[in-house]
Amino acid sequence: MQDLDHANITAAVNATWGDGTDPRLREILEALVRHLHELAREVNLTHAEWQQAIEFLYQVGRKTTRRRNEFILLSDILGVSSLVDMLASRGPDGATERSVLGPFYLPNAPMLPVGGGDMRRDNPGEPVLVRGRVYDASGRGIGGALMEVWQNAANGLYSNQDPDQADDNLRCRLNTATDGAYAFTTIRPVPYSVPTDGPVGGVLRATGRHPWRTAHIHFRVTAPGYDELVTELFPADDPYIDGDAVFGVRASLAVPFRRSDSAELAAAHGLPTPFGVVDYDFGLCPAG
Questions:
Q1: Core-most of 6, 49, 191, 239, by most CB within 10 Å?
Q2: Cα–Cα distance, 57 to 43 (Å, whole number)
Q3: Paired residues of 275 in beta bridges
């Protein structure tokens, strides 16, 4: 008979993983059990507190839908999403840093012409031209890379939060040109509050934390033979640049939104003057 106590139960649990357990799964499970048990011992966790934690996770699950993932939001506000991104960003020099996917990504956005097009459409807000290229570790452009782009509207809401917006509003996909170039028009994103009507919002209120995200544009860039890149670009002059609620800002991803009065550039991209210009090149890591 096992003589279990608070000191040896951790080893007892970790001894139960069978011989056929995948080595990586075993490594993760053993660390998870070890750290959870140590947390309970460190804070002398009570039954009531653990039940409250279980109920909290239950409520997070109830709030999660295909259109809003409260578990991603929880991961974001705890900094876990950004930590995993940072660990995954240890690529070669020149590779773009990762940042959070967020809870509002939707697949199958409308395709723009190769190289770019109009994502702005009839949205109110400061018009912006975003342009650059996608390149590999040697600096060569990657033609045919697929870029997925999404952001919020001038009211701070994403299309899947706002019944007054079309589902595909301020979302697009485009393939880079043969030299890796891309360009699309949009509006300047605005800071917004993460959703606070669920259990994660309760955590923010209970701990006196603000819910505001730095304004940003999301990008997901994929190409055969390269690791997927999920990242964001942030206006460098945003009022929340030093206090993003989900810890997504990186210095390399904070960019100037330069003002332009160029009539030639405006005509080429169907923009009124003045407008903002963002120049940014994305570096991909080789797969593996």
A1: 191
A2: 19
A3: 260
Cβ neighbourhood burial of 2 (10 Å; 0-12, 13-18, 19+): exposed
Answer yes or no: CATH 2.60.130.10 is held by domain 80-283: yes
Parallel, antiparallel, or unpaired: how do β-strands 229-235 and 192-193 relate?
A: unpaired
CATH 2.60.130.10 domain locations along the chain = 80-283
- Rounded to two decimals, the pTM is 0.89
Could you read off the pLDDT of 104-124 as tens digits, one per residue?
899 999 999 998 899 999 999
258's enclosing H/E stretch is strand 258-260
Structure tokens at 51: 């039940």
The secondary structure of 188-202, three-state, reads CCCCEECCCCCHHHH
Q: Is the pLDDT of residue 50 over 90?
A: yes
Q: How far is CA 105 from CA 100, 194, 245, 247, in A?
A: 11, 14, 18, 18
pLDDT digits (tens, 9 = 90+) for 222-239: 999 999 999 999 999 999
